[in-house]
Amino acid sequence: MKLLIVSASDIAGGANKAAYRLHRSLLDNGIDSQMLVQNKISDDFSVIGPKSNFRKLIINPVRPALDHIFMKINKVKSLFSSSYLPFSEIVTKINEINPDIVHLHWIAGGMMRIEDISRIKSPIVWSLHDMWPFTGGCHYDKGCGLYKNTCGTCKVLKSKKDNDLSRKIFKRKLKEYSKIEKMEIIATSNWIGTCAKESALLKDRNISVLPNPINTNLFKRIDKNLSRDIFNIPKDKKVILFGAMSPISDSRKGFNELLEAINALKVKNTIIVVAGSSKPKEPLKLKYPVYFISPLRDDISLPLLYNVADVMVVPSIQENSANSIIESLSCEVPVVAFNIGGNSDMIDHKKNGYLAKAIYPEDMALGIQWVLMNNELLGLSKKSREKSKGEFDRMSVSKKYIDLYENILNIKS
User: Fold this and answer.
1) Structural domain of residue 65, as residue ranges?
2) Residue 280 domain flag
3) Cα angle 151, 7, 64; round to 5
4) Separation between Cα atoms, residue 139 and residue 206, nearest integer Å
5) Whether the predicted pLDDT of 266 surpasses 80
6) Is residue 238 part of a domain?
7) pLDDT-derived band at 47, boundaries 50, 70, 90
C-alpha cells in the first residue's frame, strides 16, 4: 500500500503535527507512507516540500497571508480560510506521486483551492482537525450551526447578509464535493464526528472516529525538579500550566476565561506558567506570579515542559481534539478543561482530570483546586498515563488507520 499524507506543514501547528505523527507511526508499522507539505520545517527525507527556492522562500510563505488578507481588511480575528488561490502545484504533485490513498489533513491557508480537491485521482481520506471542511470558511463556527444548511450571515465574519462570503464558499464546496466519488471522512473526536454527520456537506459520507496518535515513549513522566531547573521554574510551588498556539491573542483558546478562573482560585503557594507566548508588554492582572515560555515545536522539549506542571488547564471555549490534553495526560499531568468539543474523549471527569461546566470559569477554578488537592490521594497522574497508553498510543492507533485504508482498497489481511 502506497500512502500519501497531505498537510500544510509537518511540525508547525497542532493539526499538522498530528498528521506528521501519524505519518511516522505508519512508517514504523511497515506502511509505505510519504508526506507532502506546503511548508517543510523538518529535515525528514520522507516529507516532500517545495523544491525551488523561489517557491520555498517567497511563494509558499506568502500564500497563507494572501488567503487570509480579507480577514485583516474586515478585522476578523477568528481564523477563516477562503481557499481561492490558484497555482499551488500541490494537486499536480499528488497525481504525479499516484498513491493508492491520499490522506488529507489541514489543507487551508492557501495550500489548495477548494476546486483542486476534486482533481485528485486517488481515493481520498480526510481527517477533520477542525470544522473547516464542512463550513463556509470558518475553522470554528462560534456555535452558530449554520453549516447544517448553507451557511450565510456568518457569525465569524460578523456578517448580516444571507448571501455573504461564507455562503459562496459553502456553495463552492458543495459543487466540488459532488464530483468526488471516493472520499472517507475521519473525525478525530466524537464531537466533530457528530457535527460532520449533521452538516449539509458531509452528511452523506462515511465517517469514522479515530483519534490522533501520540508517542507515549517520548511523552512520559520526567523528574519534575529536572524539568523545572531547565525552564527556571521554582521547585517549591504548585504549578498551573496553560499553553497553546497564540494562547493570549486567540479568543477561542479561552485566555480571558482562564484569567477569571485563576483569580477565583483559593490556593496558596502557586504560580502560573504560560507556554507558547513571550512575556507581554502589559503585565497580566493576576494574583499569582506568571512565568512565560516561548513556543516549542519539538517532541523532546515538550515533555519536559509538561513535567514542570502539577495541573494543565485547557480553557478553550470551542475545541476538537487538543494535542496538549493528550500530551499532558501521557506525561502524567492531569488536565482541567471545559466540557466542550472532544475534551470528554480524553478527560474522564474526576478520574484523570476535571471537566468544568461550559462556560463557567468559577467551576474551572473549582476543578483546578480539586486536582491540586486530590492528585496523590486518587492517583490522577497514574490514571492519566493509563488513559493515554490505552487509547492513544501511536502504534495501536496507527493500526486502526491501516485497517481503514485496507477496507477502502478491499485488501484482506
Assistant:
1) 2-213+393-408
2) yes
3) 65
4) 21
5) yes
6) yes
7) very high
